[in-house]
């Protein structure tokens, strides 16, 4: 309560100081031409005089009105219509509550107001005119572009990063992974992934660079492990033949796996995937690992960097789009 009184006294002193200042400025503008006749009729002095006079009259009127509302005006003769609030508190409260209830919060009054005004129809009629629609869109684009130009990016980036971290922390990553993997295995899409991996490996083995790499590796291996054989037979020939044999053997195995839907490797791959899915759903150790991965993601500076870069790109794209839109509208207006 003491703070309220202190705030009230401070407001009173401020209002009184403003009133005294306005009165001082008014007196100054009245007396100044008497000492400096050449300023008589100066337009800027007249503006200052009118502003100070208006402020003085308005302040005195408001002072009297507010005082008359809450206190009786001391005078030799009683002034009617003073101390209004204290004398009519109950009447004012009842009338105000009844007015608000009937005019603002009554359902029928609200429905009637909306039905009579039909704001949607009025807005649609106004926007149906191309000039109005263009003016509104230009205003929105100008305002939005201005906001983007003066907007401080740091709080926005911090908010987005904090929101992203909070969302990742609240995310049940293990359940999400289990549900996604379960959907993939249910549709046997993991076998499609395996087929693509097999195709990529077969294509990689067919490339000359890969065969040369295998041959070079065999040369090094022969010289290291079987140096006597390397002395009897040319290592380059052995490595080339060995590389061809290895490529053919591996390619044959890959083709068998690719062509045979019931190949043992496919069954083993199925078992590994289902085993991983089961551990993901029921293993406490797997849950601990997933949670540790999530903590690493949240605390990784790369996440904050990615968020900041994404916002910067989006900010620049949005600003460029708005400026292009504004330029097109201005050009259209000039042509029209």
Brief overview:
With about 325 residues, this protein is mainly α. The protein has 16 helices and no strands. This is Secreted protein containing DUF445, transmembrane.
Unreliable spans are none
Quick one: overall form? elongated
Biggest sheet descriptor:
none
| Termini separation | 64 Å
Strand content: under 5%
What would you report as the Rg, rounded to the nearest angstrom?
42 Å
Q: Output the structural class.
A: mainly alpha
Q: Estimate the helix proportion, in percent.
A: over 70%
Q: How do the SSEs run, as a string of H and E? A: HHHHHHHHHHHHHHHH
Can you give the mean pLDDT? 77
| Discrete helix count | 16
The tally of beta strands, per DSSP, is 0
Explain what this protein looks like in three dimensions.
- This protein is mainly α.
- Among the domains are: 2-82; 97-153, no CATH class; 188-259, no CATH class.
- Helices cover 87% and strands 0% of the residues.
- It contains 16 helices and no strands.
- It has helices spanning 2-35, 43-70, 84-87, 89-103, 107-117, 119-127, 130-150, 153-170, 173-186, 189-206, 208-225, 227-232, 235-259, 264-282, 284-299, 301-335.
- Helix 8 runs antiparallel to helix 15, helix 10 (189-206) packs antiparallel against helix 13 (235-259) and helix 11 packs across helix 13.
- The model has no long low-confidence stretch (mean pLDDT 77).
